[in-house]
């Protein structure tokens, strides 16, 4: 269908040589907007869903004043932040100070270039898609470091050190989780990783959800989910902005849209970590049961529902657990998760070469 749209547009603009050259660029821009526009809407309304769900869990209403059921609250928040004064610290390095928020949010948005929404439905369906996502998302830590250092503030710098150390620690565990999935799939193409979960005895019986990677790789799945919470600096791992210690951490000197961009980067990262969890472990756009009723639902809706459930888990965790101490967070990453993933890496490697290999 996408190829048909592209070829149709190319035929319409084939009269002049310059339109033939411009159409591929225009088509790429159209695809980028088609991905980013819903994503930014999802990021904005995730803030509302978080406040509503937390309100439900704490037996209160949540936002309900702006628009029907509070549905216009994210728009009101955006307008408020857009009109707030930008306060620049006099001793800050202004070039890097302004670069920090951009470096924080761009990787969380750029990584969607390789995310598939269905078979052959992606901005770029490349064979090294998993490696591309890992390479892009690893840049995000530089935004945090630059923001903390350029602010020329002790609180901001300490927050940046804590945030960057935490992000790097849990990136290692997440990298090993990706490596285990890569081993059982035999491909770094994200579409192939999803399609590989539609095979096996359970899939042939119509019980697709039992053939997804979450079941045989359950310890890796749990490690990935918890590491994703820590990687996005979400509660209970949000000590980088502990109010009793270092206020807002690396973004304490930012105001208005500078602060808002860091805020949006956190929620964009939550969506990215969640959809990667769905692609790697929960069958992507595949329906949980192979039946006529379930197969009537388009794949992108299944992908969206699963991602919504995973991202809601972030909020559930926030409402359930108290904030950890920083030493507990680092010990969990280095002394528990990394050894667990390394051991499971060896177990899966031996499993693949054994007669009980289920991924043949």
UniProtKB/TrEMBL annotation:
Q: What EC number(s) are associated with this protein in UniProt?
A: 7.1.1.-
Keyword annotations for this protein, in alphabetical order, are: Cell membrane, Membrane, NAD, Oxidoreductase, Quinone, Translocase, Transmembrane, Transmembrane helix, Ubiquinone
Q: Which reaction does it catalyse?
A: a quinone + NADH + 5 H(+)(in) = a quinol + NAD(+) + 4 H(+)(out)
GO CC, sorted alphabetically, is: plasma membrane
One Pfam family here: NADHdh
Parts of the chain that traverse the membrane: 25-48, 96-117, 129-151, 172-191, 211-230, 259-287, 299-320, 332-353
InterPro entries of this UniProt entry?
NADH_UbQ_OxRdtase_su1/FPO, NADH_UbQ_OxRdtase_su1_CS
State if tRNA processing is listed as a keyword.
no
Top-level EC class as recorded in UniProt: translocase
Q: Which domain of life is it from?
A: Bacteria
For membrane topology, the record states: Multi-pass membrane protein
MF-aspect GO terms: NADH dehydrogenase activity; oxidoreductase activity, acting on NAD(P)H, quinone or similar compound as acceptor; quinone binding
Q: What family does this belong to?
A: Belongs to the complex I subunit 1 family.
Q: Spell out the subunit comment.
A: NDH-1 is composed of 14 different subunits. Subunits NuoA, H, J, K, L, M, N constitute the membrane sector of the complex.
This molecule's function is given as: NDH-1 shuttles electrons from NADH, via FMN and iron-sulfur (Fe-S) centers, to quinones in the respiratory chain. The immediate electron acceptor for the enzyme in this species is believed to be ubiquinone. Couples the redox reaction to proton translocation (for every two electrons transferred, four hydrogen ions are translocated across the cytoplasmic membrane), and thus conserves the redox energy in a proton gradient. This subunit may bind ubiquinone.
This chain belongs to the protein called NADH-quinone oxidoreductase subunit H
């Amino acid at each position: 269908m996408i190829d048909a749209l592209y070829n149709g547009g190319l035929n319409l603009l084939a009269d002049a040589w310059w339109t033939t050259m411009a159409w591929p660029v225009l088509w790429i821009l159209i695809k980028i907007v088609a991905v980013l526009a819903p994503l930014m809407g999802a990021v904005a309304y995730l803030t509302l869903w978080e406040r509503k769900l937390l309100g439900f869990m704490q037996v209160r209403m949540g936002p309900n004043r702006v628009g029907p059921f509070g549905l216009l609250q994210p728009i009101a928040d955006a307008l408020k932040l857009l009109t707030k004064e930008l306060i620049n610290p006099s001793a800050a390095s202004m070039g890097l100070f302004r670069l920090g928020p951009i470096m924080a949010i761009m990787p969380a948005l750029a990584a969607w270039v390789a995310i598939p929404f269905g078979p052959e439905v992606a901005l770029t369906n490349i064979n090294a898609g998993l490696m591309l996502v890992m390479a892009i998302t690893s840049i995000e830590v530089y935004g945090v470091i630059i923001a903390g250092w350029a602010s020329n503030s002790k609180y901001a710098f300490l927050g940046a050190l804590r945030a960057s150390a935490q992000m790097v620690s849990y990136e290692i565990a997440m990298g090993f989780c990706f490596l285990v999935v890569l081993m059982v799939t035999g491909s770094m193409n994200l579409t192939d990783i999803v399609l590989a979960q539609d095979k096996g005895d359970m899939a042939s019986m119509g019980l697709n959800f039992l053939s997804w990677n979450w079941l045989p790789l359950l310890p890796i799945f749990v490690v990935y989910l918890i590491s994703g919470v820590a990687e996005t600096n979400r509660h209970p791992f949000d000590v980088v902005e502990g109010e009793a210690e270092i206020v807002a951490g690396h973004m304490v000197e930012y105001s208005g849209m500078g602060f808002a961009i860091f805020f949006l980067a956190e929620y964009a990262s939550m969506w990215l970590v969640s959809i990667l969890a769905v692609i790697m472990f929960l069958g992507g756009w595949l329906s949980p049961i192979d039946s006529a009723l379930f197969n009537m639902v388009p794949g992108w809706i299944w992908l969206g529902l699963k991602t919504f459930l995973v991202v809601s888990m972030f909020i559930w965790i926030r409402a359930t657990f108290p904030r950890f101490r920083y030493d507990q967070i680092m010990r969990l990453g280095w002394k528990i998760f990394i050894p667990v993933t390394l051991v499971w890496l060896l177990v899966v490697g031996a499993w693949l070469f054994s007669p009980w290999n289920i991924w043949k």
